[in-house]
User: Fold these one by one.
Assistant:
Number 1:
Amino acid sequence: MSVLYFAFGSNMVTAQMAERCPGAEFLGTAVLPEHRFRIGRRGYGTVVPDTGAAVYGILWGLREEDEAALDVYEGVRHGLYEKVSRFVRTDAGDDRLALVYVATDPEPGAAVPGYMEKVVAAADSHALPTAYREELRRWLP
């Protein structure tokens, strides 16, 4: 494992990550404090700074080739997302520095068809906090 990756959108879907990043290791749930989930202008999830808010998601351990695959999928080369490092809190209460993909155009938008259904289903399957799952449901069409 070369990097910790915090997934908050459709990359919380275990089967999707297994396909995209076969070497990814599920490490549990985590929370990104002082941020809020948002659908960006392009119709996919991002996180934006927001004092007092929190984004819940999945912490993955990635190999270099998995990170490279995610870079392609997330459109880093085309400027759709940028890679940033943020501290997340693990289930065990440890603060860990993790890779987070953040949209370069975070202005609010509407989700592309089917996207939020995947995100909500993944949040349910990983038993993220109920109040947070309700927050995600507000983005459903």
Number 2:
Amino acid sequence: MPTEIERKFLLLSEAWRGEVTQSTRMTQGYLSRGAQSSVRVRISGEQAQLNIKSSRDGIHRLEYEYTIPLTEAQEMLAAVALPPLIDKTRHLVRRGGHVWEIDEFHGDNAGLIVAEIELATADEGFERPAWVGREVSTDPRFYNSTLSERPLNRWPEPERAAALQPGSA
């Protein structure tokens, strides 16, 4: 079974922007979303994927991803996906043998930027850049599936301010 081990962090600064090697706008919607599993369709540039994820702890996930025709993905986002859709730009930063995926959200989640790193094992070491802040890997509010159901702009102001406090590395 394909397992994804991913850690997610808030950011302390904009310093990462100078290290970006690639940026891609993405739109994604959920056909099904639950506490432990989700089915998502994503358009990334001119590519489209159907993705199934199941997680128990927020870090380890079973993940299945399949390329689908772009026109079918567009139809699913328009007619089947649960609103609202996720709109974000994914920026890639290469650092210490790893690729950091930095998602800058737009629309209903504007203002949220998170950095993710995929690891081969849960205890794998990695270089933690100075711009990486508080880990939110196990906080379900920061899962894309949750953000599609309860976007940042619907959070009460005190909760939003406290949740987005990046903390210290």
Number 3:
Amino acid sequence: LFFGFSLQTCAIAALTLFLIPLFLLDLRYKILPDVITLPGLAVAVGVGVASQRSFESLLIGGILGAGFFALQYAVSRGKWIGDGDIRLGGIMGLALGWQLALVALALAYIAGAIISVPLLLTQKKQWTSEIPFGVFLTLATYTVLLWGDALLLWYLQTLGVV
């Protein structure tokens, strides 16, 4: 314990100091700068370790998160997403492990659709408009940091798997 807080709580607080500026910078300027994302990767490892996730889960999560966006970046030649999203995907995976990274990705895409589809239908945005997806990734990451295990359990119970 550190001043009455667990190591996990302190690690999540540290990662929050990276997620908030990433959220704000992507929302306002559509950028996820290296000066925040690169050290954020190290902090994310600390969160994963403090959360007692297995090394395998963290490694697979980091590769899955970054690789998912790297593939999109390569296929679209950087038109669908920016390279900062690759590093943010890595942060997600390293902090959450692969199982919860999948939950966070699903949440981010669902939230993105809930916001984007009405904007497209009302023609406030066009198909060619840039939508700062890092906003949804940071919110989903934070949500899953706090409630991911419960969300995953609820989903699996809903499917009847558990």
